[in-house]
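[step 3/7] inverse_fold.run input=structure_tokens len=82
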């Protein structure tokens, strides 16, 4: 997955998040389902942003960004301190 693919996936997730919130506001979706799916989307977005940052860091260091191992597990990505 290259940078363009990662950014496209981020856009998809953000769009889904917006649609989810709109559905909730129209009472088409329950609070529990909204929270569950939002949590999944937040994790997926964190994984994408992590992958993008690691690829960019390798490029800036003069290394091949294609050598990044891929998406890290949710428990690893979600454990980072900001």
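[step 3/7] decode complete -> sequence:
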């Amino acid at each position: 997955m290259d940078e363009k693919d990662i950014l496209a996936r981020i856009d998809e997730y953000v769009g889904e998040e917006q649609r989810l919130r709109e559905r909730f506001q129209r009472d088409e979706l329950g609070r529990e389902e909204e929270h569950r799916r939002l949590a999944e989307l937040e994790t997926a977005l964190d994984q994408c942003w992590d992958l993008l940052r690691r690829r960019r860091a390798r490029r800036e260091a003069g290394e091949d960004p294609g050598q990044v191992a891929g998406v890290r597990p949710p428990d690893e990505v979600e454990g980072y301190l900001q």
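[step 4/7] annotate
The chain has three helices and no strands.
The helical segments are 3-25, 31-60, 74-77.
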